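Title: Prediction job returns without error message
Component: structure pipeline
Severity: low
Priority: P3
Assignee: unassigned

Description:
Job completed but the reporter wants confirmation the result is attached to the right record. Sequence as submitted:
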Amino acid sequence: MMSPPRSGGGSVLPLANRIVRLGGAGAGAVLLVLCAVVAQATQAPRGRPAAAPEPASQRTRPAHASRGTKPAETTAKTAPLVRTVRTAVLRQRSTIARREFGGRAPKAPTVLLSRSDAAKGWAFGSSVIAPPDGVDAPPDASLFIARRLTTGWQVAVTGAPTFAAFAKHAPSDVVPDGERALLARYGKAAVSGAATGLELPWGPGGSWTMRPAGDPRAIAFAGGDGRVLAPGPGRLYRLCSRTSGHAMLLLIHPNGLASTFSRLTALTAVKDGGAVRTGAYLGTTGRGLPCSTGQAAGPASVVFGVLSGGRPAALDRLRIGGWTLRVAASGRAVAATRGGVRVGQGDPLLNLGDGAVPTPAPSPTATAPPAASPAATAAAASS
């Protein structure tokens, strides 16, 4: 007689993987029952810790502000740069944003300066065009690199041909060497087909639920201990704000894709551009709307998205963690399938691991993160 699966994941994954390989409706029914059992077994009692802590070697401590080099602040001296960035972002991405926002005119971008070198005349940061009020759509996120000329600031935004050139030639205190190659590739067409090489953004063996986010390019996940983890290795950047609740996180992966996360609280301490491994802590689920002061209704969650070519990608038929996502064109119905199993919204979705899903391009393993600058390595090691 089969013994019940353990909540800690020691026997859940091997058993579940064997069930998936069986295929068929019977296997699907068994796996759905297994998912429900795991969801109940892993549900933390109220008022008690939800899970044992990760080993210190794999843990990134939650924090409310990034550490390391102090980020550049908007001052009277940098105000002309911020205005120029807003103009450049609207000029290049307003058509894209208008299409993503259902034809509604975009708002003025929110610009966040990450690093600057006043003496050399270079700056780096992020920009977000938030959707108009009442529009269920992910914000349009981009990065920028700027250099000062005698005639003023010249700005290169994600997707522009000059962005890769700027990434290669900016001084290392603005674009560290460990980020150059990744940023030079980012914004170009990244992947075709369903494979992403990404895992689900929570721990293996855990069951969370899916909810529609109102847009086919976003999905809300909730459950477990609320700890949101990196679905793949890459470099991390903040958008909108550096404070918890209303910030977004952008994680650029070695294969050119990027993943986005919003509604997070207790953000990771990893600074902008820092290297993270698969499974690294990013934040905890919350309700704060990104680039806004509003709060979302319903349970605390993380809104997850994928960028390809620097633009939000439709999630329908993309494979994440070995599951194929199914998202209606309206964005108001979601499901996931794997090996003949279908999990609907509100049902427990078990993280079985990515299995044998191929990645679009070679990427570092969990023991070999992307090449990092000494500062980024030191920051990650001390977390």
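Comment from assignee: result matches the submitted record. Helices lie at 12-22, 24-42, 79-100, 161-169, 177-185, 374-382.
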